Amino acid sequence: MRLLDYTAATFTADFARLRQERVQAVNSVERTVIDIISRVKSAGDTALLELEQALDGVAFKPEDLLVSPKEMSEAIAGVSASDKEVLRQAARRIRAFHEEQQAQLDKTWYKEDESGIRLGQLVRPLEYAGLYVPGGKALYPSSVLMNAIPAKVAGVKNIAVCSPPGKSGTINPYVLTAARIAGVDRVYKLGGAQAIAAMAYGTETVSRVDKVVGPGNIYVATAKRLVSDSVGIDMFAGPSEVLIIADDSANPVWVAADLLAQAEHDATAQPILVTTSRRLTERVVLELDRQSTILGNAQAKQSLEKHGAAVIVPDNEQAIELANQIAPEHLQLMLAEPEAWLDRIKHAGAIFLGHYSPTALGDYIAGPNHVLPTSGCARFSSPLGVYDFIKRSSVIKYSRQALLQQGKLALALARMEGLEAHAAAVRLRLGED
User: Fold this and answer.
1) Same domain, 244 and 205
2) Per-residue pLDDT, 15
């Protein structure tokens, strides 16, 4: 991990360079992803089977793409009762948070005045949501819960999961158990860009969805961006990020563990420590070396070496300024008085306060969603939530009396813009020649 004495401004420039490298990486795979999407659009299931064999090393028949009820039941039966209870408890906490979130959302409403104008907003859930859950070597039942539960709370009736199969051609039983607990309707053995294309455009086996959500690698993220003209997506998510602001009250062992927790997600993850304390920094660097050796995770080591940094700043004000400029996915305030700084935070996907609130709790059981904006998108984006699975329609009704009262205003604006057909649509109702 690099040890840096930086001002907020100079480090932000360096951080921007690292993010630009991500953009270049996306550009390098875009042509491949465009080809995969094109093949799925034109050849449907045939393309999916070819791609799964070529990319995931699994030979399927069309009927094998969908996890059957028998497969689902047998996989779930192999999960211990204690592990099922862990998943159920996590699901309850995630559902409770998102039900509270749902209660705060916009509702259907109407307002009518004396002249007969009725205006309002009609709120409806999406009909079909497609959830991508990383798989293969990885194991993410928590992502099933975080993606599916807010959709269910929103009232989505049809929920499908796509997840890459292992070499045996099966989906991990913990992922399938989480899918059952969360109320997922169907699970497809599909990974990568081809899964995103299948959900976006539909095939003989995979139903087209209204929105695709969920994390994935650079191919998945690029595919989501490329299909976003045809289907809704949650966000264009990059590798995981954590920025920890710590002072001398922080335990260096814990700080190092929290940095490594995000580093193990991906070799391009960005674990950053910002502190006023050189003493703390030196102890954290030693702890990172010790813990990473024990962990033995090559991805985490590469993440720390290439993308990690320990940044020493003059005071907490500069630390907060730096956090706001970076707008990190995860922000931990490991400070003696974290609440005193909370109102100063402008941009972050999720904020963790104090020494006993590691990001790992948010990844699993705290309740708020762990699908978060990355790469500075927290400046304008929010965590995945119930609001991602609803849509609003405006409702407009005019009585004849209201049209007579206000029609001339619309007529004048239509003529102002030179749109004669618009003008005629109002003028004819007003009885004017």
Assistant:
1) no
2) 67
Residue 391 domain-assigned (yes or no): no
Provide mean pLDDT across the span 52-72. Answer: 91
Cβ partners under 8 Å of residue 138, min gap 6: none
What's the pLDDT tens digit per position in 11-60? 667 666 666 666 666 678 899 999 999 999 999 999 999 999 998 888 88
The token pair at 53 is 């064999």
Indicate if 161 and 217 belong to the same structural domain.
yes
pLDDT(236) > 90: no
52 and 145: one domain? yes
Q: Are 309 and 4 in contact (CB under 8 A)?
A: yes
Q: Kindly report the pTM of this predicted structure.
A: 0.91
Find the catalytic residue in 330, 347, 355, 370.
Answer: 330
Are residues 342 and 246 part of one domain?
A: yes
Over residues 422-429, mean pLDDT: 95
329 classed as catalytic: yes
Specify the DSSP element, H or E, that contains 396.
strand 390-397
Alpha-carbon distance values, 31 to 27, 37, 50, 109 (Å): 8, 10, 18, 46
Residue 115 sits at the vertex; the CA angle it makes with 112 and 116, to the nearest 5 degrees, is 50
Cα separation of 300 and 308, whole Å?
10
Q: Are residues 153 and 268 in the same domain?
A: no
Band the pLDDT of 235: cuts 50, 70, 90: confident
- Indicate which residue of 329, 347, 355, 370 is catalytic: 329
85 in active site: no
- The answer to whether residue 304 sits within a structural domain is yes
Cα distance between residue 391 and residue 381, in whole Å: 17
Domain that holds residue 214: 44-109+119-233
Number of domains in the chain: 3
pLDDT given at position 168? 87
Instruction: Identify whether residues 139 and 219 lie together within a single domain.
Output: yes
Radius of gyration of the chain (CA): 25
Phi-psi map region of 375: left, alpha, beta (phi>0 left; psi -120 to 50 alpha): left
